[in-house]
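Subject: mismatched residue count in predicted assembly?

I count 640 residues in my input, but I want to confirm that the predicted structure covers every chain. Input:
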Amino acid sequence: MHLDFVGSFIFAADRFWIWLATYCFMLASAYSAYTLFSGKFMAPRLTFGLVLAGFICQTAFLGVRGHEVGRCPITNFCELLTFLSWSMILIYLVIGSSYRLSLLGVFTTPFAGLLSIWALLQPEPQAVVIKHPVNPWLEVHTSFSIVACGAFALAGLAGLMYLIQERQLKTRRPSSMFFRLPPIRTLVVANSRLLWLGFGLFTVGLATGFFIGQDVDWRKVAWSLVVWALYGGILLARLRRSMAARWVATLSIVVFGLLLSMFWGIRFISDVPPVR
Amino acid sequence: MGHPVHFGCAAGKMNISCFGLSHQTASVEIRERFAISDSGLSEALLRLRAIEGVEEGLIVSTCNRTEFYVAGAVSQVPVTRFFEEFYKDLRTGDEPHFFGLWAERCVHHLFRVVSGLESMVVGETEIFGQVKRAYEAAARERATGRLLNKLFQKSFHVGKQVRSSTAVGRGSISVGSVAVELAEQIFGKLDGCKIMVLGAGDTSEKMARTFKARGARQIFVSNRSFDRAQVLAQEAGGRAIRFDEWDREFADLDILVASTSAPHAIVTVDKIAPVLKRRSDRPLFMIDVAVPRDIDPNVHRLDGVYVYDLDALQSMAERSMESRRQEVAGCDRLIEKHVVEFQTWIEKSINPIIGPVAVELPRS
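Triage response: the counts match. Full output below for your records.
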């Protein structure tokens, strides 16, 4: 009983960091959306600062949780969603400046904020987590899979931006937003590279899953293989030039939606077992 | 036309005034008579400072305006007398084209000029550089002093702020610049793009030059007259291609500018669709500035292909112009704050004893 109470308290205190991160992402989203749709001057440093602050808060949460559980902090659904959101922001921070895709943050921050809210809505664990010997295969499997999902999320967002640009070009009535989004060619390249990055990481994550040494949940495996095959199919079609960029962008969004539903499915089919 | 107002100083004290004429008050025939060339600027500044009461002087002379900014006790001088003293040979009927602005109205006007709000094309940026050069020339000749230095430095700050914090300079307002802006929005930098110009008339030449000015390095020109294509290709730093061979280059192309005098479409879906399969997923941007059109409108329906004809480009240019006009009120509000700031500075720094009372003088 005492341990339950202490566990809940510690977890609730950790959540403070997710609250802070959510505020940062939502503030960044509101500011970016306002400047984007009103055509006003945008201070990129302010958005970047808020995203960075949110990322630091998420890192603090994952750091505290990782220290408590003595392993990669993906022991419950709240942590899983936070890790996914953190991965997405990490990749955004790395590639955003490389590909001059600062505006990707406008699309990334609301999504990261929503994931954080979803994480906060998860019930607090009833039992305190006790440190357990680390299984390296499990660590690699979970962390690679989720970082891959972060890359796929960004690929989907780049795809969404591409579709917005494409539509405005096709209708020949570009709005002020059109001229503030990255060039359509840059979005095609970013979308492609993010898909490759996500696919590589996901493949490693999937392969290492077979070495964990625990009972395999074949429903999860089947779901993962379907997602892997779909992304593989998109990339193969892209390599063979048999799919237009518009379709690649659309499928990046659709398949990521499927992937997100897999997270939701995992939650209900078989909750991620906490390490006890 | 305004009349003299002082920043809290009695008649004859230091003040700022502007005398001039612009595209809003005078036709080009009148403006060209009053324009001052770069070579004559030094002498003109000497003449300006020789006018009684002028202590500091600066001349902004562009194709759209000739304006004299002066600091000193000239606020009581009527506009026409100022011009008579400067030009000596005024004609009958010149007077209505002049304007005179004093004190905060002069400051407000300068801030609007530097911000591009007084320009023929609202929000254009060229005037900023022109005023800056005029200021540098006057400073070099030691024609400016404390007041004009402060005024013009403030005006550059205001001009930059107006452009960065409002949308008054956004969007292109000519067909050529709209096309180039769209190209940049599709490809990013144009230095790696392959551009083909079909036709070698005036429009093609202008487009080729515009693309070259924006960094395009690989420009191909194809025309029925190969000699003419070679001439234009040389001017644009590109390569000429025979007209019956232009479609062979298509697979690697990024931008096509079509401006031939062909009576029917020469770029059709049948011609383009097979080539698209050989391309990677690079977008293809086609600009059709020919009448009748050179590109079949159905080509626009192909994946990754964007065709913009004259009407589409013109309509975008007009919408940009309209949205710039809508920004003017916001710019004026911003400028007003800076005028008040400058007014406060001048009251404290130049006429600290008399205090911030605006004295309006009777019309001369």
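Residues 1-12, 353-364 of chain B have pLDDT under 50 and may be disordered. Marking this ticket as 'not a bug'.
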